[in-house]
Amino acid sequence: MENPIYKARRTPRTLTLRRRCKQSTTSIIQMGEAKALVPESVVKKEKRNEEWALAKKQELDAAKKMRFETRKLIFNRAKQYSKEYDEQQKELIRLKREAKLKGGFYVEPEAKLLFIIRIRGINAMDPKTRKILQLLRLRQIFNGVFLKVNKATVNMLHRVEPYVTYGYPNLKSVRELIYKRGYGKVNKQRIALTDNSIIEQTLGKHGIICVEDLIHEIMTVGPHFKEANNFLWPFKLKAPLGGLEKKRNHYVEGGDAGNREDYINELIRRMN
User: Fold this and answer.
1) How far is the C-alpha of 216 from the C-alpha of 144, rounded, in Å?
2) Locate the Large ribosomal subunit protein uL30-like ferredoxin-like fold domain: which residues (predicted)?
3) CA 74 to chain CA mean position, Å
4) How far apart are CA 168 and CA 236, in angstroms?
5) pTM tops 0.85
6) In angstroms, rounded to a whole number, what is the distance separating the alpha carbons of residues 164 and 109?
7) Is the model's pLDDT at 249 over the cut of 90?
8) Which strand (E) or helix (H) includes residue 184?
9) pLDDT tens string 176-229
10) CATH number attached to the domain at 113-271
């Protein structure tokens, strides 16, 4: 049975207000349903953005994994090279000791790598000598380059000997030159070797992906020495500490020009 109190309150005005409230509620519900109907273009855009975000995340994860594997490979190679250099040094010491015990001496194998430094300018230089210096990429004073020892390079060095000094660099010299003054040629531009990715980008197809690979290829005059050496920009060395003795005289005469064999390493220390 309906409460008489509520029945008494049913005035025309109250009924009108109730109808209006009911209509407002119905309108709000209809508006919510209208808002729920999202345009097809918006749905496609959201789906496309989600796909792009997922693809980007997968790409970043793959790149991160690749970087981790590359760092691991670089570490293992550096460790392998260090072991190889140590074994070579120990073998050399062993052979020298054996020769000494037998009353003789051990003759080391002929060097395969040269480092050439230009020490004189172009005054009174004949055109052929200038052309050879250009072929050797020695265009400025105190420029230095690595060179493979063969008959052709030895003949060229004899022609330009008064203008350059050269010798046989050791591992320490090669490493210090590349780490301290190494620049690479990327798209004909001189780029500092601040990241292994610079080397991998240019020489990765030859299996050279880091600085230690580059040092090993140069030091051992490996199968891709030409590509590695051409990648290296000519070294721009400073004037030697303490100066030069006599640039016009040969090294064996107390000067600076010509072949100084292993003593090139001492000059590299002064100029690096």
Assistant:
1) 19
2) 114-164
3) 12
4) 18
5) no
6) 24
7) no
8) strand 183-186
9) 999 999 999 999 899 999 889 899 999 999 999 999 999 999 999 989 999 999
10) 3.30.1390.20
Amino acid making up residue 21: C
- Residue 23's pLDDT is 63
Tokens of 99: 């020769």
> Taking the CA atoms of the chain, what radius of gyration do you get in angstroms?
38
| Burial label, 272 (beta-carbon count in 10 A; 0-12, 13-18, 19+) | middle
Residue 124 Ramachandran class (φ > 0 left, ψ -120 to 50 alpha, else beta)? left
pLDDT of residue 189: 92
Per-residue model confidence (pLDDT) at position 33: 53
In the predicted model, what is the mean pLDDT of the chain? 86
Write down the pLDDT at residue 10: 58
Which of left, alpha, beta for 207 (phi over 0: left; psi -120 to 50: alpha)? left
Relative to beta strand 113-118, strand 164-167 is antiparallel
Tally the C-alpha atoms within 13 A of residue 24's C-alpha that lie toward its C-beta.
6
Taking CA atoms, 194 is separated from 178, 191, 216, 225, in Å, by: 11, 8, 18, 21
Strand, coil or helix: 52: helix
